[in-house]
Amino acid sequence: MLVVQKFGGTSVGDLDRIQNVANRVSTTKKDGNDVVVVVSAMSGETNKLVGYAEHFSKNPSRAEMDMLLSSGERVTASLLSIALGEMGHDVVAMTGRKAGIVTDNSHTKARIEEINPQAMHDALNDGKIVVVAGFQGVNASGDITTLGRGGSDLSAVAIAGALKADLCEIYTDVSGIYTTDPRIEPKAKKLESISYDEMLELASLGAKVLQNRSVEMAKKLNVNLVTRTSFSNEEGTLITKEENIMEAPLVSGIALDRNQARISLMGVKDRPGIASDIFNKLATAEVNVDMIIQNKAHDGATNIDFTVPVSELKDAKSVVDSFVQSGDIDADSYNEDICKVSVVGVGMKSHAGVAARAFLTMADNNININMISTSEIKVSMMIDEKYAELAVRSLHDAYELEK
Amino acid sequence: MLVVQKFGGTSVGDLDRIQNVANRVSTTKKDGNDVVVVVSAMSGETNKLVGYAEHFSKNPSRAEMDMLLSSGERVTASLLSIALGEMGHDVVAMTGRKAGIVTDNSHTKARIEEINPQAMHDALNDGKIVVVAGFQGVNASGDITTLGRGGSDLSAVAIAGALKADLCEIYTDVSGIYTTDPRIEPKAKKLESISYDEMLELASLGAKVLQNRSVEMAKKLNVNLVTRTSFSNEEGTLITKEENIMEAPLVSGIALDRNQARISLMGVKDRPGIASDIFNKLATAEVNVDMIIQNKAHDGATNIDFTVPVSELKDAKSVVDSFVQSGDIDADSYNEDICKVSVVGVGMKSHAGVAARAFLTMADNNININMISTSEIKVSMMIDEKYAELAVRSLHDAYELEK
Questions:
Q1: B92 contacts chain A (CB < 8 A)
Q2: What share of chain B is helix, strand, coil (3-state, %, to 5)?
Q3: Cβ–Cβ contacts within 10 Å for residue A149, how many?
C-alpha cells in the first residue's frame, strides 16, 4: 500500500516528538508499505519567524515572507529524515520544489497548480521513504511560494492525489471526527467514516480538525483521508466518497458555531434591487453572509435579518451604516449572543423527517429558532447562544448518535 | 560602484543588528552604489541546527544536513530584505540557487563550480538591492549543497568575481588585519592594505579573520577584498593584488601560531627511502607536516624533527609508533610547548637582510630558535612557547611596525 502521512506542528513540536514520528513512519514502512511523509514546521517556529518579520515591517514583502517561512518545514523534514536514516531506512528529504509542487504566483497563499511526482516516484521505486517539507512549492519562475493556513495538509492531499496513494493520513492532536464536540456532549462518539460532503459541512460549521481547502481537494482528487492522532495508536476517522461508506447513518454529527452575529435591518425601503444592493456591497467588503431572512411586517415595512461571522461584523456594520445614512434603511441592530447549531448527514437526502425531528427537539426544549437554513445534507438553526449546549445535547440524543 | 557586502553571524546576531546591517546597506545604496549583500545565519542558529541533527544521529546524512543548515541563511536573507523594503528600497532576497551558485556534489563541503549571475544582473539593472543567502548553492541535480566553514565569505567572493564587483566587503567583529595580535602587542597597527599572498601566509599562521579558501578565490578572481567591522564606521583593511599596493612595507605583520607540536625521531635507521616512507604515511593519515629538520648526530645516527598541528598530534603519534615498533626508529619524543612565530612581508622578495634581522632579534633576546622555515615572503621560527609574546613584541619593534 502507498501511504501519505502528514504530521502537523504539535506532532513534531520537539525533538522527542520527531523521534516518535520517525518510529511511527518506520513501523508503517516495515509493515510493507511505501511511505511519503509530509511535515509542518515545529510548533511555534512559524509564529517566531512571523514575529521576526513584523519586527521590521508591518507589511513585509510576500515573496520574502515565503522564503522566510518555508525554512521551518525544511528543518523538520531534514531532521525527520536524519532520524529515519539513523534507524536504518533509506530516506530522502525533499523541499516542495524537489517534490515537484508547482503553484500559482500568489505568495503566502499560493494555490497548487500541478505536481510533477517523478522525483518522488523514483525515490519510492528505490525503496526510499520520502519526507517532504509541507506548506511550500515554487511558482513558474522557480521562486518559493507558500500555501497559507493549513498548507501542509494541502501538500499531503495533493501529493496523495498525484501519487494515487491508497491512503492519506493526517496526524493532529485530536483523534478523529466526533459526532459532536465532546466538551459539550461527553457521549459524543468518534466516527469511523464520514463522506467528503458531510466533512465539508462540519468543517464550515466549526469542526476545526481539517480545513475545507484540504477536504475539497481530497474530494476532487478522490483521496481517502484519515484524521488521527500522533499521540496514540487509536484509529482515526476515514473521510471518503459517500459510496465507500457502507451503512451511512441518517445523521453523522451535530455542529455548533458560536462565531456568528445577527444583523437586523428594520424598515428597508421598498424599492427594486435594494436587497441585492446591500448584499453586493457586503460581498465587495468581503463579508460572508450566511443565513438571510426577509419578511414584511404587518405595517408593510420590510425587515431583513442575516448572520455574518463575528470577525466580519465591523466591516458589515460600516456597509449597513451607509444605507442607514442614505435613508434606505430606517434602523439597524446587532446581536452577537447567538449561535448556529446544525445537524449534518447524507442520510437526509433519502429520508424525510430528519429536519422535522430537529425542529421538534428544539420545541421540546423550549428553544426558540430564530432562523433556519438547509442544504441537501444539513439543517442549521440560529438560536440564542445561552441554549447552545442544551441544543447540541438534545439533538445528539434525538438522533441517537451515542450509539 | 558595484559593492558586495558580506555580513557574518555576529553582525546579524539579533534583530537589532540586522536592522543595523540594513542601515549600512541602505547608506551604501543611497551613496549611489549598486549593492549585493551576502548574509550568514544569525549567530548560534547553525550550531542549534547541528545540535538538533546530532540528537538523532552521530553521522547524519550530508544531503539532509545541507537542507537543514541552508535554512539559517535564508531566514537572515529574508529578514534583511524585509527590513530594507520597509526603508523604501527595492530589494529581492535570493537563495543560493536563485543567485545561480552551482557547486559540485560534495554535500556539507561543496566547491563552487560556476556562478550564473543573470538573476542578480537583472535585479541590479532594475535598481534593486540583492540579498543572497550565503553558504549555499545547488549541485547539478538541483539539490541544495553547503560550502562548509567560512562558506558565506566564499559565496561573497565568488559573487563579487562573477559580477566583476569593484569591491567585496567582509564584515566581521574585528576591524581589519593588524600587524600582529593586539592582545599581545598593544602597539599593533591596523594595515591599510595587504597583498593576497601576505594575507594567505598570515591566515595560515593563525590570523583568523579570513579563511584561506576565500583569499585564494579572491586572488584567483582578482576581487578586491576589504575586511572591516559592522559595529563601527572604522575603515578596514584592503586585500588586493601586490601591484595595487603603492608602497609596500618591508614587513606587513608578525604572526603567532601556538597550535603546533614538535615530534622528534631519534636514531632513524639509515636505509634509503625511510624518510619518504614516514612522511608518506603521515600524509595518508591526513597529518599536515609543517617544518622539517633532518640531521646526522656525531655518533652517525640520523634524527628527524618536524612539527604538526596539535589537533593532528594523536594521528601523527600512531604513525610514528608503528615505525618505532618495526625498529625503523629507535625512539620518539613529543613537545607541545612550542610555538611558531613568523615575519611576513612581500618586501622580503626585493630586500636582503629581512630574515637576518629576525634571527638577530631572537638572539638579542636570548630566544633559542629550534627550527626555521622560509618562503619568498615569510620567515617562520619555531621557539619555546614561553617566549611567544616576547618574540612577537621584539619583532614588531625590530621592523618598526607601530609606525
A1: yes
A2: 40, 25, 35
A3: 13
- Residue A12 CA to residue A73 CA, distance in Å, equals 10
pLDDT band of residue A216 (cuts 50, 70, 90) is very high
Amino acid identity, residue A181?
Answer: D
Q: Which of B127-141, B204-218, B340-354 has the lowest mean pLDDT?
A: B204-218
Question: What is the distance between the alpha carbons of residues B149 and B205, in angstroms, rounded to a whole number?
Answer: 18
The three grid cell numbers given for residue B308, joined into one nine-digit string: 604538526
3-state secondary structure of A120: helix
Cβ–Cβ < 8 Å for B371, B305 = yes
Residue B206: predicted pLDDT: 61
Residue A43 gets the label, from left (phi > 0), alpha (psi -120 to 50) or beta, of beta
pLDDT over 70 (residue A207): no
- For A18, name the nearest residue in chain B, comparing CA atoms only: B56
C-alpha cell at B15: 534583530
pLDDT single digits (tens) A313-372: 999 999 999 999 999 999 999 999 999 999 999 888 888 888 899 999 999 999 999 999
Which residues in chain A touch residue B86, judged by CB atoms under 8 angstroms apart?
Answer: 56-57, 60
B299 contacts: CB under 8 Å, gap ≥ 6: none
Q: Which of A18, A79, A13, A20 is nearest to A47 (CA)?
A: A13
With 0-12 / 13-18 / 19 or more C-beta atoms within 10 angstroms meaning exposed / middle / buried, residue A298 is exposed
In this complex, do A82 and B61 lie within 8 Å of one another by their Cβ atoms?
yes
The domains of chain B are located at 2-173, 243-403
* A57/B98 touch (CB, cutoff 8 Å), yes or no: no
Radius of gyration over every alpha carbon of chain A, rounded to an integer in angstroms: 24
Q: What is the ipTM of this complex?
A: 0.82
- Residues with Cβ within 8 Å of A10's Cβ and at least 6 positions away in sequence, in order, are A17, A43, A172, A173
Contacts of B72 in chain A (CB under 8 A): 71
CB interface of B with A, residues 49-68, below 8 Å: 49, 52-53, 55-57, 60-61, 63-65, 67-68
Tell me which chain B residues have a C-beta less than 8 angstroms from the C-beta of A97.
142
Cβ–Cβ contact A48 with B under 8 A: no
Q: How many CA atoms lie within 13 A of A283 on its CB side?
A: 7
Q: Mean pLDDT, to the nearest integer, of B69-96?
A: 97
Any CB–CB contact under 8 A between A93 and chain B? yes
Q: What integer pLDDT is reported at residue B207 of this predicted model?
A: 63
Burial class (CB in 10 A: 0-12, 13-18, 19+), A350: exposed
Q: Write the secondary structure of A133-180 as one string of H (helix), E (strand) and C (coil).
A: ECCEEECCCCCEEECCCCHHHHHHHHHHHHHCCCEEEEEECCCCCECC
CATH architecture classification, B243-403:
2-Layer Sandwich (3.30)
Cell numbers given for A82? 536524519
* Closest residue on chain B to A49 (Cα): B75
CATH-assigned architecture of domain A2-173: 3-Layer(aba) Sandwich (3.40)
Distance from CA of A127 to the nearest CA of B (A): 17
3-state SS assignment for residue B265: strand
pLDDT digits (tens, 9 = 90+) for B29-64: 999 999 999 999 999 999 999 999 999 999 999 999
The answer to whether the Cβ–Cβ distance between B64 and A18 falls below 8 Å is no
Is the pLDDT at B75 greater than 90? The verdict is yes
pLDDT per position as a tens digit, B258-286 = 999 999 999 998 888 888 899 999 999 98
User: 10 Å Cβ neighbour count for B328?
Assistant: 17
pLDDT at A50 over 90: yes
CA-CA distances (angstroms) from residue B158 to A27, B80, B113? Answer: 46, 21, 10
- For chain B, say whether A119 makes contact (Cβ under 8 Å): no
The CB-side HSE value for A359 (13 A sphere, CA atoms) comes to 10
Residue A304 contacts residue A278 (beta carbons within 8 Å): yes
